[in-house]
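Quick start: what a row looks like.
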Amino acid sequence: MTNSRYRILGEIGQGQFGRVLCASHRNTGQLVALKQLDHRRFPTHRFLRELTILVVLNHPHIVGFHAIEYISAGRYIVMDYCQGGTLRQLIESKTTPSILHKLQIVRDILLGLDYVHRQGIIHCDLKPENILLDVTAQGWSAKIADFGIARFQSMRPAQSDEAGGDTG
């Protein structure tokens, strides 16, 4: 990506509305995740709603928002990079975490969900693929990600562009 503050290192995920790339900041070397959303499948009003939600949330068990990167190649949401992969990958791996590590992951998810709900937000798409893991000295730390179809509790279902569809 020329004219970008970030150097793409590779794709780390693909979803219904776009893909997620691992990148490093050109000046600091900090690793980040760049979420690229397809304009046709994820229109501007939904992009702005996800941004609004991410800006509101600031919690150790929610993937952190850093910036927006908008260049001719597309628009990107710059977020925390979690080097431990997803909970789905951990579940499907041959690794068997101890009961203590499993309970810590569950605790992290519940703390994150409690925080999100206290902010008046409903995630609507909580699944193992949307739980990212950071590696720590104590094991894993779980972070909730992908607020692409999340909504504010104050929105009635008819106000949501997901009305009539099954989400979450």
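That is the whole record. Residues 19 and 125 are 16 Å apart (CA to CA). DSSP finds three helices and nine strands in the chain.
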